[in-house]
Design brief:
This protein has 6 domains: about 5-75, Winged helix-like DNA-binding domain superfamily/Winged helix DNA-binding domain (Arc Repressor Mutant, subunit A); about 85-175, Arc Repressor Mutant, subunit A; about 180-275, PTS-regulatory domain, PRD (Orthogonal Bundle), CATH 1.10.1790; about 285-395, PRD domain (PTS-regulatory domain, PRD), CATH 1.10.1790.10; about 405-490, Rossmann fold (3-Layer(aba) Sandwich); about 500-635, 3-Layer(aba) Sandwich (Mannitol-specific EII, Chain A). With about 650 residues, it is an alpha/beta fold. It is built from 27 helices and 13 strands.
C-alpha cells in the first residue's frame, strides 16, 4: 500500500460510529473520488488477511469497515510503525502472518509492506520454507494467489512457539514471539497465569512460565481465528482425569472474560497438556510426582544405569531422585504430547561436561529401549545437570582423599614418629601409613600400596616415588616436600590417555565426506585389532547419530557402548580438512573405547580432551603432524 492508501485505511479504522461518503474521503486526502474507489479495491485485497475485516458500501449512506476490536488494534499498530524493518524482523513477521493467516500472501503484498524488491522477498520465502520443514509444514505457492502454509494446526502452533529459532543468531533481548502481540494482551495473560499458580499452589520455573505465556497468546489468537486443534475423544477423556484440566478450566474462565472469548473443549484439553508438560519447581509438585508410577520407573532405571556406568553412588542421593521425579514427569509429558523444547545451553553443557553428557546419552538409550521413549539431546543436557549437581553435592561433603606416604628413617623409632607427627601436622592431605627402616621397605611394599616414600636415607633404584629429606624436617625440607607432592599429582594426571593410545590406531591425512564415516573407520580399526566386539561399530555410529560428539576447539570424542569393549584403547584421526560435526567443525577425532571398569581413567581422559578444546594452538599443531612419535611428543608437551 502507498501512503495515501494507508491513510485511507487509518480513517476507516478510526471512524467507528458509522459510514463516510466517498467525497469526504476525497476531500480529506485531496484526490478524486475515482482514486478513492480504486484505493478501496486495494484495501479489500489487503484486508482478506484478517478474518473479521470487511469493507461495506451502502448507497446513500457511505462506506465503512466492519472489524473486531483485536484486529482493529493490530492493524492500527502496524500503521503507526514507520521505522523500516530489519531482515530478521521482516522474517519473523512474515512467518507469523503465514502461520496465522487463512489466505495466501503474494510477493507483491510483502514487497509493498516492507518496501523491498520481490527478489528479496523470494529469498525470505526460501528461508521460511526450509525452517517450516522441521515442523512437517509445507509452504506452497498457488498460481496468481500467493503463498500459504499446509499442515496440522498442532504443528503450526509448535512452529509459532519456536519462531525465535527461525534466525538462531538473532538476539534483541526479548522474546520475538511476544513482540508480535499487543502489550495489553501479554500483560493480561501473564497476570492470569501468575494468579493460577497462587490459586492452585503450583510453581512453574521462570522459563516454563514464559513458555506458557507464549502458548496462551497463540491459543487466544487461534481461537479468535476459529482454528482449533484436533483432539480425539480418548485424549479428551484422559485429560479430564488430570487436575491440570481444572487449572485450564479456571484459566479459560478468566481469559474468556478478559478477551470476550468462548474457548472450545479442544483448547482446554490442549492447554491441559501444556500445563502437565511445563517444568515445575520442586515445591508443590514433588509429593504428587513421586507417586507417578511411570515417572518413578523411568527415574529408577536412569539412576541405576548412571550408577553402573560411572561407578558413582547416585542411588543414595534422595535430592537427586526427588528432583529427577519432578523433571522427568515434564520430560515424559513433553514427548508424549509432541511439545519439543530447545536448550540454549546445549553446546556449552556438552563442552563443559563431555564425560557426564556421554554417560547420560548412553543411559537414555536404555530408557528408550525399555520404555519406547526417544529423549532428544536438548532434554538430555538438562537431565545431566541433575547428575552433575549430585556429584558436586557428594564431593562437597566427602573429605579429600589423602595421599598415602611411607616414612623410612634410619635414626630409630623415636625420630620416625617425630617426623610423622610433623608431616601430618603440616600436611592435612598426607596420611603416613607406616614408619619402617630401610631393610623393611621391600617387604612392606609387597603387601601394601603407597603413593610415595619419604625417606631420610637414599634408597635403591626401582623403589616407589621417593623424596629424601632431613630427619629434622627443616624449612627447606618443607618446601621441598610441597613441590614434590604437587609434582607427583600433576605428573600422574598430565596425560592419562597416553597409555591407551596405540600407534596402530592413529591415522593421519584422513579424508571423509561425513562424520559417520570417520566414526565407522575408527570403530572398525578397534574391532580389527581386537580391542572391541563387532557390535561396537554399530553402537558408536548410533551414538553419533543421536548427538554429535564435538566438544569445541575442533575436537570430537565419539564412543560406543562400554559394555562391549574387550580391552581399553584410544583411536585417533587427523583430518585433512575440517569436517562439519553437528554444529561445529572438527579437525581432530579421538575415539574412546574405555570400559566401565576404567571409569577413573575415563573421566580423566575426557577431562583432558576437554582442556585441549581451550588450546587452539595445540590442536592446530596436532593437525599438522604426520607421525605417531611426534603426535605423542606434542601430547606429552615436549
Amino acid at each position: 500500500m502507498n501512503s495515501r492508501q494507508k491513510e485511507l485505511l487509518r480513517l476507516l479504522l478510526l471512524h467507528e460510529e458509522g459510514a463516510m461518503h466517498i467525497k469526504d474521503f476525497a476531500w480529506d486526502l485531496k484526490c478524486s473520488e475515482k482514486t478513492i474507489r480504486n484505493d478501496l479495491d486495494r484495501l479489500e485485497e489487503f484486508l482478506r488477511n484478517y478474518e473479521s475485516a470487511r469493507i461495506f458500501r451502502k448507497p446513500g449512506i457511505g462506506i465503512g469497515i466492519e472489524i473486531d476490536e483485536h484486529e482493529r488494534l493490530e492493524i492500527m499498530r502496524g500503521l503507526l510503525v514507520n521505522e523500516p524493518k530489519t531482515l530478521e524482523e521482516r522474517l519473523f513477521e512474515m512467518a507469523f502472518q503465514l502461520l496465522t493467516g487463512h489466505n495466501p500472501f503474494t510477493l507483491q503484498y510483502w514487497a509493498e509492506r516492507y518496501y523491498v524488491p520481490k527478489a528479496s522477498i523470494k529469498k525470505d520465502i526460501d528461508t521460511i520454507t526450509n525452517w517450516l520443514n522441521r515442523f512437517d509444514l509445507e509452504l506452497i505457492s498457488k498460481q496468481r494467489l500467493g503463498n500459504i502454509i499446509q499442515g496440522s494446526e498442532l504443528n503450526k502452533r509448535n512452529a509459532l512457539a519456536r519462531l525465535s529459532e527461525l534466525v538462531p543468531a538473532y538476539q534483541n533481548g526479548t522474546n520475538v514471539v511476544l513482540d508480535l502481540f499487543l502489550p495489553y494482551e501479554i500483560a493480561v495473560v501473564r497476570k492470569t497465569l501468575i494468579a493460577l499458580q497462587h490459586t492452585f499452589s503450583v510453581a512453574f520455573t521462570d522459563d516454563a512460565l514464559d513458555s506458557l505465556v507464549v502458548h496462551t497468546l497463540i491459543m487466544v489468537k487461534r481461537t479468535r481465528q476459529k482454528s482449533p486443534v484436533f483432539i480425539g475423544q480418548t485424549e479428551k477423556t484422559t485429560a479430564h482425569t488430570h487436575k491440570e484440566y481444572q487449572y485450564a478450566t479456571w484459566l479459560f474462565n478468566q481469559l474468556g472474560d478478559a478477551f470476550q472469548l468462548k474457548f472450545p473443549e479442544e483448547e482446554k484439553v490442549y492447554f491441559t497438556w501444556h500445563l502437565i508438560s511445563a517444568k515445575r519447581m520442586a515445591e508443590g509438585a514433588n509429593q504428587e510426582l513421586l507417586y507417578n508410577e511411570e515417572t518413578s520407573q523411568v527415574v529408577h532405571v536412569l539412576i541405576e544405569r548412571m550408577a553402573k556406568l560411572t561407578l558413582f553412588p547416585f542411588g543414595k542421593d534422595l535430592i537427586l531422585r526427588n528432583g529427577l521425579s519432578v523433571h522427568m514427569h515434564s520430560v515424559i509429558s513433553r514427548i508424549r504430547y509432541h511439545f519439543p523444547i530447545t536448550n540454549p545451553l546445549l553446546t556449552n553443557i556438552k563442552q563443559m561436561y563431555p564425560y557426564m553428557f556421554s554417560m547420560v546419552i548412553l543411559s537414555l538409550d536404555e530408557i528408550g529401549r525399555t520404555f519406547n521413549m526417544e529423549i532428544p539431546e536438548d532434554e538430555a543436557a538438562y537431565i545431566l545437570l541433575h547428575f552433575q549437581a549430585s556429584i558436586e553435592r557428594f564431593e562437597g561433603k566427602r573429605e579429600a582423599k589423602k595421599k598415602k606416604a611411607l616414612i623410612v628413617c634410619h635414626m630409630g623409632i623415636g625420630m620416625s614418629h617425630l617426623l610423622e607427627a610433623k608431616i601430618e601436622q603440616q600436611y592435612q592431605d598426607i596420611e603416613v601409613v607406616a614408619c619402617v627402616g630401610k631393610a623393611e621397605v621391600n617387604e612392606y611394599l609387597k603387601q601394601n600400596s603407597v603413593d610415595f616414600i619419604i625417606t631420610t636415607v637414599p634408597l635403591e633404584k626401582g623403589a616407589e616415588d621417593t623424596i629424601v629429606i632431613s630427619p629434622l624436617f627443616s624449612q627447606e625440607d618443607k618446601k621441598k616436600l610441597s613441590q614434590f607432592v604437587e609434582k607427583i599429582h600433576v605428573g600422574k594426571s598430565k596425560n592419562p590417555f597416553l597409555p591407551f593410545l596405540k600407534e596402530e590406531l592413529v591415522f593421519f591425512n584422513v579424508s571423509k565426506e561425513h562424520r559417520y564415516e570417520v566414526v565407522e573407520m575408527l570403530a572398525m580399526a578397534l574391532y580389527e585389532k581386537g580391542y572391541v566386539q563387532k557390535e561396537f561399530i554399530h553402537s558408536a555410529v548410533k551414538r553419533e547419530q543421536k548427538s554429535a560428539t564435538a566438544i569445541g576447539g575442533g575436537i570430537a570424542i565419539p564412543h560406543g557402548d562400554p559394555a562391549i569393549i574387550v580391552k581399553p584403547a584410544l583411536a585417533a584421526a587427523v583430518l585433512t580438512e575440517p569436517l562439519i560435526w553437528g554444529e561445529e567443525k572438527v579437525s581432530l577425532v579421538f575415539m574412546i573405547a574405555i570400559s566401565k571398569d576404567n571409569q577413573t581413567e575415563l573421566r580423566e581422559i575426557i577431562g583432558k580432551f576437554a582442556s585441549f578444546s581451550d588450546s587452539p594452538q595445540l590442536v592446530h599443531e596436532l593437525t599438522e603432524i604426520q607421525s605417531f612419535c611426534r603426535f605423542v611428543e606434542v601430547l606429552e608437551g615436549k
